């Protein structure tokens, strides 16, 4: 460090690394993160803090945020936590910059199986607390996995050293993990034992889960917002007539996919759905859905679907893997996901369900009830929750929700909204599915939500009784009445 004559800190860093290509990773009002590539290889990451306004400048002049983070990274490394190696720290007037060596090759944590993600997050929380550190910004975007499957903690500014770890620290840190991941009680207890607060386990367990449920919507909302700007989750594409976000881990030629999608529509090939509002085709392993322009002052349909898709994805609810979203100048839009090569739930119940043994039938129905119950327990509402908008992998069994443009995660979900979803499901399942199986579904559902399943069944049956049963079959749409049913 020394007295620098450059007009800004970015100019100085560019002169210091003249052989590197600068790639913007993330940008906020006062903080920017860049990746410095030498050729095709990421070599450094640069975090620049450039405050605006006299109070912020004075604070960073007296106590640079990046210098604090550099010191914290060194302290974490001394405690055997895997963090990027600090290369340099630069100050210029009120601005400062932290340069770290890139963890390369690596991949984002969210590309792993969710069970593995949860395991790594719990392990990281235990290591931090065991070394008397508290982290107030614990989320999957702050962790990457290197080529040896080791997790690296990238962002250390919100990590604070503690003289004593208190129950408040334990509750807060573990609830941040449980706000995004479903962790069984026995796994959580094992993690708490490693922290060493055995006498506090029972009280802490309940408080962690209460705080996690309260925080889940906020944490997932933050993750969804991170996917609407360049960063660790997405890369941005800007063209003359559209802008797009591509989800991390997807190396796609978006323009090629879109042109092939258009050829599918014009030639009526590989068309999965064709309506005035939406056109859906398959291109290789991708499902591409174009939307018409929305009403004035309304958000693009694909962007709404993208946000709903990611809300479910980050809550661990089955959806097609997100790939990309694109918004055009005329307000039309496109959503790209991975293909789901599974049958729609109503077609499955119509054609395959009755061929299964009783135990397999029970497994599918109970798993379905648990999935919908978990979704509602997280206060998530799907405005069009019909069986034709659900795919089923019967072998798992696992379920995947489609048509995500009207998904909401609320602070609370009224019983009337949950009942509406249950009626939508009940009246889109083929009539020959027995009352006993429908009751088993609601019993499993109520196990997640705490409802009395008998009262729930009466309410669902009362609201369903005057409605037709509409579902899809391989031969087309089919309408039944309850008079055709058999128990």
TL;DR?
This protein has 487 residues and is an alpha+beta fold.
If you had to describe this structure to a student in words, what would you say it looks like?
It is built from 14 helices and 23 strands. The protein has 487 residues and is an alpha+beta fold. It has a 7-stranded antiparallel sheet with strand order 11-12-16-17-15-14-13, with helices on both faces. Strands 1-2-3-5-4 form a 5-stranded antiparallel sheet, with helices on one face. A hairpin with a 3-residue loop joins β13 and β14. The radius of gyration is 26 Å and the shape is globular. The model is unreliable at 1-5 (pLDDT under 50).
Subunit arrangement of the protein: single chain
Strand content: 15-25%
Mean pLDDT, rounded to whole units?
Answer: 92
List low-pLDDT spans.
Answer: 1-5
Biggest sheet strand order reads 11-12-16-17-15-14-13
- Proportion of residues in helical segments: 25-40%
Terminal Cα separation, in Å?
80 Å
Q: Which geometry do the CA atoms define? A: globular
Number of helices in the DSSP assignment: 14
Features:
single chain; 487 residues; alpha+beta; five-stranded antiparallel beta sheet; disordered N terminus
């Amino acid at each position: 460090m020394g007295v620098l004559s450059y007009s800004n800190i970015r100019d100085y860093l560019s002169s210091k690394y003249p052989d590197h290509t600068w790639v913007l990773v993330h940008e906020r009002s006062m903080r920017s993160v860049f990746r410095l590539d030498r050729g095709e290889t990421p070599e450094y990451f640069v975090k620049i803090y450039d405050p605006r306004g006299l109070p912020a400048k004075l604070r960073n002049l007296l106590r640079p945020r990046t210098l604090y983070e550099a010191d914290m990274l060194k302290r974490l490394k001394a405690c055997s936590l895997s963090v990027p190696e600090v290369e340099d720290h630069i100050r210029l007037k009120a601005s400062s910059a932290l340069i770290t060596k890139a963890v390369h090759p690596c991949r984002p944590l969210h590309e792993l199986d969710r069970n593995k993600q949860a395991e790594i997050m719990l392990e990281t929380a235990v290591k931090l607390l065991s070394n008397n550190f508290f982290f107030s910004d614990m989320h999957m975007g702050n962790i990457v996995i290197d080529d040896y499957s080791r997790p690296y903690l990238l962002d250390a500014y919100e990590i604070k050293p503690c003289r004593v770890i208190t129950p408040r620290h334990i509750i807060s840190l573990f609830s941040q993990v449980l706000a995004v991941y479903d962790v069984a009680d026995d796994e959580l207890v094992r993690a708490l034992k490693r922290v060493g607060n055995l006498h506090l386990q029972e009280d802490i367990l309940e408080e962690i889960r209460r705080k996690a449920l309260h925080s889940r919507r906020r944490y997932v909302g933050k993750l969804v917002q991170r996917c609407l700007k360049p960063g660790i989750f997405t890369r941005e594409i800007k063209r003359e007539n559209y802008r797009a976000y591509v989800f991390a881990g997807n190396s796609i030629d978006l323009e090629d996919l879109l042109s092939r999608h258009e050829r599918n529509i014009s030639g009526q090939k590989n068309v999965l759905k064709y309506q005035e509002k939406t056109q859906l085709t398959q291109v290789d392993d991708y499902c591409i859905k174009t939307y018409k322009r929305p009403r004035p002052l309304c958000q693009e349909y694909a962007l709404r679907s993208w946000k709903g898709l990611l809300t479910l994805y980050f809550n661990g609810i089955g959806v097609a893997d997100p790939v990309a979203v694109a918004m055009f100048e005329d307000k039309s839009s496109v959503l790209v996901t991975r293909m789901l090569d599974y049958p729609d739930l109503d077609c499955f119940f119509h054609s395959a369900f009755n061929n299964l043994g009783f135990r397999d039938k029970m497994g599918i129905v109970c798993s379905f009830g648990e999935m919908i119950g978990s979704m509602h327990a997280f206060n998530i509402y799907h405005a069009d929750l019909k069986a034709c908008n659900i795919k089923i992998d019967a072998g798992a069994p696992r379920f995947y929700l489609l048509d995500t443009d009207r998904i909401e995660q609320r602070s609370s979900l009224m019983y009337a909204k949950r009942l509406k979803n249950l009626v939508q499901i009940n009246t889109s399942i083929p009539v020959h599915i027995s009352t006993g199986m429908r009751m088993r579904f609601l019993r499993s559902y109520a196990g997640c939500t705490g409802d009395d399943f008998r009262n729930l069944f009466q309410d669902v049956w009362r609201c369903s009784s005057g409605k037709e049963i509409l579902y899809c079959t391989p031969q087309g749409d089919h309408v039944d009445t309850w008079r055709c049913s058999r128990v």
